[in-house]
Amino acid sequence: MTIKLIPLINNHFITDWSICMRRLITLFITVAMIIVLCSACGSVDTPESASVHADPAADLTPITVVLDHYPMADTTFLYIAKEQGFFAEAGLDVSFVMPSKLSSAEMIANGFAYFGLCSQLDVVSAREQGLAVKSIGAVLQSPDDLFLTKKGNKIYSPSDLYDKKLGYDGSELEKAMIACMLYGSYRSFMDVNLTDISDMDLGEIMDNDTVDAMLAGSILYDLPLLEEQNKKPDWLKLENYNIPSYYGEVLIASDDLIASEPDLIRSFLDACAKGYEFMNANREEAIRCLIRSQDKDNLPISDSLARTTLYTVIPMMKPEEVSFLDQSDDCWNAVLTWMTRWNLISGNLTVDDVRAIIG
Q: Does domain 61-143+247-354 have CATH number 3.40.190.10?
């Protein structure tokens, strides 16, 4: 048998097939290792490249905020704080949800979210019902609720409500508000006809004769929307008629979170304050943020409505004499006293039961 000589490098010859195969395998392995090592060296991260590849949200604490309605002008500071990175700077990855069958206070008390929004009156009512939540900051320093009346009905004060059909949401709280307004004008429920309008559309109510006036709607959405639609109702401010000027919206947290995570709460509130400051200083961008954050299917906001409501809400969030998120003893005491007088609470609650000061 003749063995074929196989020429290799440097004029050497291989005369055995097994030797040839071993050297070829060794060569292939060597080349493969060189390729792998070169690839590995090329992919080593410097501190700069590592920061580029890192997930920016990896070290952030995820938290959920429950809104008490679809995005409107009064929630824009939250969306700005998220868009501008103020929450991220505070180490927080914030997401927003709407309450469903549970109220925002119920969701917070049951641990479904870190923070929520509701009115000051709702906080007191929730506490009376045994829900362990407290206000940690006042977003709206005055009520946004309105008592709307149809233009032409000649209702200029509660004294004009005699024998009128009044709409409300069916709650004991709104019933007490109407009673308080009537009481100041020497009227009572005997003088009016109450109608539950909780399942009715506000625009449709204004178009028919269901009621003559109603405790419904917000100065931050419903009133300017009706005016845009050329319905232009008259309206009364509740705090002008024996109802204390309560906080229209507050941020709330659970007792457990307040006790265990004061630093997290402080970071969250600081980022919220930056959101408001940016909103106040950059109003055109704030308007664009409101338009971007709207829920078009459930609460559409036109450009003109966004502008009107944002310019309305900014002074309500921070009047000249207070800081954003401030909460006063006087306001809380006035609300507790009023709700006790009108049998909405037992009278055993103190300011410390419903409000927390985060230093």
A: yes
